[in-house]
User: Fold these one by one.
Assistant:
Number 1:
Amino acid sequence: MTNIQQNVLISKIMLKQTPSEDFTYIYRGALFAEIMDSLLILIEKNFTEKERSSQIFKKVYFILVEILQNVTKYQIEEEEYFANSIMIVQKINKNYFLTVGNLIKNTEIEDLTSRINKINSLEKEELTEFYKTVLTNGKYNLKGGAGLGLINIKRKAKHNLNFSFSNINQEHSYFYFTSIIPEKEEDVIDFSFNNVKKTHESFKKDNVSLLLNNVLDQDKLKALLHFLESSIQEKLPYRKKIFNILIEMLQNVIYHSSNVENLGNDKYGIFLVSETEDHYKLLAGNYIHKEKETVLLQKLEKVNKYTLDELESAYVKELKATTSKADSNLGIIDIRMKSNNFLTYNIEKINDQFSFFILEVNIGKK
């Protein structure tokens, strides 16, 4: 068995979570308009048709749009730090946490802190009057936004705005902002930015650009590919190679993962993308029943032993012999052929019934 060296910490964090209706989307990178639009589509696909008609989804979506618009007003687009902005969308125990971290000038910290504290100090009726005042005279102005977005977020969430700063240098800091939408409006949810900042540092250290922890299906796969098309800036044909491997890896999760009973027998998995100057690293993980481990390991070992010349003939042979994609080696053969690299994998024991299978693929840029 080949051990995965990079991103182990992140993988183990995700593995500690019990499969549930909870989900996590984390994106680290430049937050420009096309990325934001694709991110909204991807998150929207996480909700069922019934959920999309619910009031809580409308609230989550409205606040998410306001947060992303707020970013465009406040962030500094200096390439080194701009590319390290972070967006985190989580559902935990039916409560939603919408977080963004973006670059700002240190000279803006005092003014921004004062404005948010002012908004947080106001009760419902006071906030409504303050909104009308700002809307009328426009004097509460910061980069043309008049602070209306922040006021709208508190009015919609009906909870205080959470924020923190992390100093980078004498000129810049990261501004972290979180809006919490609880299942019940009267609930008070404990929150700390410690985990947000640790996650951000971990993603920067490992060059991770995207992490999904969710039930995966064909609709989410399409939305994910649309999002990655916006975020991956590589030129063709290299981008086509990445997308083809992405599709095979995600299909592999959908076809080969074991259903998890407390998720309504849905396919639960994680997906992670990281990048260096030399290559992309794609990681997909899913649950498998313990009795499937031996067969899966045998398939992977067999495919890794093939020479590149042998892979093509093995693919053709497999294609002729197999009637069910779920039972074949086609996916993993195809991934190895297109990546032109050995497959890296690991299996983590979860309990007596399930294990978690992690597949990692490196795609060289040359």
Number 2:
Amino acid sequence: MLVRLTFVLSAVCMSWPLTLAAQSPIADVVCASTDRMRIKLKTQFGTERVATGLRSPEEIVEIWSDTDGDWAMVIAYASGQSCIVAMGDHWQAKMPRNPA
């Protein structure tokens, strides 16, 4: 499935008006408007947002995963842009810690 996700991302790069993040240490970061990114992740890749976390006051980290365990890490910026910064397979959700 990771191969399929990678192939589809490559195809998306050619068909979307995306930008590559010039200041990122990752060479091929795929970016688009947050709304457009979320629509593509849901409809084209069949993923759901399974985790989020605040990276800074202006950045939210999102993990998107499908039922096969393929995942993508997205940074959503306050500017309205989102970028896929990593992807992989075998995502496993951990149970929340027992507060007791």
Number 3:
Amino acid sequence: MACKKKPCTSADILTPEQKNILSAMAVTPSPMACKEIAQAAGLDNKLVSGKLPGLQTLGYVDSPARCRYAITDAGKKMAADI
């Protein structure tokens, strides 16, 4: 019997927490501190700080200043697809 799984999309590689972080960041035009992202996403600060490096590696989040994070155009596109 053939596998009938749906094809993988880029959003499938993200955890629910990463999706939540991107969604929260997508509605904020300026760079945010980790604590601000956590509040906006309704998540624990330590969880957010642990997820941000993975989002940076994927190119969805950038750090334009020390301890500040901004969503990239690719991140905005991903957030729109979630």
Number 4:
Amino acid sequence: MNDAIETARLQNSLKNPIVALALGFFIPGAGQMYAGSVMWGTIALIATIVCFITIIASPLAFIICLVSLFFGYSCTKKVNDRVLEAASKVG
């Protein structure tokens, strides 16, 4: 029964990369915040807002959004890898 409890705890601590992509699609930087990188997610959000406000830099805002999506997804994968690695060392 202990293995079932540990497996359930491990599954609860993993983050879904698809959720990170969806969050980042609707709110730039939210995927990074979901993955645990709150500082970089906040920076991406503020930079995107500033670029959207200035019409000249709106292509830059689009690029920041795409980069934010990529980092949100990849950070979530890295967090999951660290959680799985820590669980394998304990178990």
